[in-house]
Amino acid sequence: MNFPTAVRTCLTEKYATFSGRASRSEYWWFVLAVIIGSIITQLIWWPLGMVFSLAILCPGLAAGFRRLQDTGRPGWYIAIPFGISLLNTLLAPAMPTEEAMMAGEMPNMGAMALSGVLAIASLVIFILYIWWLTRPSQPETNTYGPPPVPAS
Q: For residue 45, what are the contacts with CB-CB under 8 A and spacing of at least 6?
């Protein structure tokens, strides 16, 4: 699958399709398009970048979901990094600002320790996901359907 076909497939035909499988080329060409789109929209105007990120969230999750299924793993695993990010976001208010620390406020050591553990977990999960998402497709039909048909 080439670049334009992958982008068209992920943005139109399979925008919110969480069933089936996605080939490596479909997924990684789409990821490249998302990275390019993010950079361009952020450079133009950061609120536009935020709108772009929201618009691309569903097809990005769907493509990752299908890609994991293509390697024989449950697609819902794609939600794990989002859960860790949510935990970090919920912990953020427990962290004192630099000004508060300069004024003598003591940081919540438990929240800081948990944040550190989540940061290490995020790094490990990031490496694991890169490895999973770059694995070859299972050549045979698996639990999630037949192998992706190459685009002609």
A: none
At 53-100, the pLDDT tens digits run 999 999 999 999 999 999 999 999 999 988 888 888 887 777 777 887
Of the candidates 107, 104, 105, the one whose C-alpha atom is nearest the C-alpha of residue 116 is 107
Question: How far is the C-alpha of 82 from the C-alpha of 99, rounded, in Å?
Answer: 30
Q: Using DSSP, state whether 141 is helix, strand or coil.
A: coil
Distance CA 63, CA 112 (A): 34
pTM comes to 0.83
* Alpha-carbon span 67 to 57, nearest angstrom: 15
